[in-house]
Amino acid sequence: MQTSTTPKNDLIKSRLHSLDALRGFDMFWIAGGVALLRVLTKDSASGFLNALFVQSQHVQWAGFHFYDLIFPLFMFISGVAIPFSILTKLEAGTPKKDLVIKAAKRMVILIIFGTIYGGLLRDGFENHRLASVLAQIGIGYFFASLIVIYVRSFKNWLFWLGGILAGITILQLFIPVPGIGAGVLTPEGCINGYFDRMFLPGKIDVYDPEGLLCCVSAISVTLMGAIAGHFLRQQDTSEKRKLVTLAIIGAGLIIIAVIISPYYPPIKKCWTATFDILTAGISFLLLALFYQVIDVWGFKKWAFFFTVIGMNSIFIYMFNALVNVRYTSNYLLGWPAKLLGESGGQLVITTGMIALTWTLLYLMYKKKIFLRV
Q1: In contact, 184 and 199? CB cutoff 8 Å
Q2: Which H or E run includes 343?
Q3: Which of 315, 368, 320 is nearest to 109 (CA)?
Q4: How many other C-beta atoms can be found within 10 angstroms of the C-beta atom of residue 317?
Q5: Domain count, the chain
Q6: How far apart are CA 191 and CA 180, in angstroms?
Q7: pTM of the model
Q8: What are the tens digits of pLDDT across the range 62-101?
Q9: Among 72, 249, 281, 257, which residue's Cα sits nearest to residue 169?
Q10: For the segment 60-71, what is each residue's pLDDT rounded down to a tens digit?
């Protein structure tokens, strides 16, 4: 992990404002946004609010809710940054080997952070779960970067993307699991769990939602982010054409996912190709929206709240695991929260959690402390 000492304005000018804001929007839900949404909508008599509450929960298995988008959206965003960082350095003459080493170091650091997040330092290696969200992000970034570094033809990126999606589809639908058969997309029957039980070290129950085949499948989401970044990086393409391209791709991917979902459903816990395509499609549309409003129209002030979060995304992910912010909020606001009853009190405590977390990130932002992996 690196602490950036680059002057804040210089650092931000070299980045897409919309990308930092979108990353912050994504991390906001982890940093308390989903908890706040649940408090506001739980046990509501309103059908609309009840629908929002449902969207704040993960789908148990097959299907898709808004909360299922948070993880793949982050992987997509990390992919968008790849052409801006890697291709720019390649064009400046940086050796490919140096870029591969840097991407590999990032992957290793994220794997280590993932094990810490999973409680390695607390519980030790016995029955430790090796797989993690951060490990999957690191692996997805590394292999998507390898493709960008060594496959310079953009059209060949598409062949790699198609190969990954086709490979996962074939494995999940047509390769039989011993004793169960092929295409049985249940926790016990999906080939992902079979691979995890056979080959993944560490604690495994029936399957791991960030297991071996999940990581392979998720590379496609990061690579689709890199494809979006490729379009945004084109200097000879108008802003309107960039926006239209992103929107058409996003809408097209969503339509494809909807068409095939009755036969091959989106399942986050085993990262079906349908789930990859659907979440990448939504991510394309969100990127198009943020890019148009922030970078094209220049409306940046409203997004400052999210930008502050997005500039220290990995830090806030680890911070939430290591620090009990709810305890601190309750310590500072517990008495007035009690006066408002159970629902009002939960609202005060949850809002306090978000305010405390954002204030810390804002102070880091003002001090030009940007923790990078």
Answers
A1: no
A2: helix 341-366
A3: 315
A4: 19
A5: 1
A6: 10
A7: 0.92
A8: 999 999 999 999 999 999 999 999 998 999 999 999 999 9
A9: 257
A10: 999 999 999 999
Question: Which position has the token pair 């650092």?
Answer: 11
Residues 357 and 325: beta-carbon distance below 8 Å: yes
Encoding tokens for residue 61?
């298995």
CA distances from 329 to 229, 308, 325, 337, 348 (A): 39, 20, 6, 10, 9
Reading the block at residue 145, the tokens are 């970067």
CA-nearest of 363, 59, 80, 336 to 224 is: 80
Burial letters 80-108, b for 16+ CB under 10 A, else e: bbbbbbbbebbeeeeeeeebbebbeebbe
Among 52, 27, 23, 16, residue whose Cα is nearest residue 354: 27
Residue 265 per-residue DSSP state: -
Q: Which domain holds residue 37?
A: 2-372
Rounded (10°) CA dihedral 73, 74, 75, 78: 120
Where helices occur in 175-298 by DSSP H, the ranges are: 191-199, 212-233, 239-260, 273-290
Q: How far apart are CA 154 and CA 148, in angstroms?
A: 8
Name the average pLDDT for the chain: 90
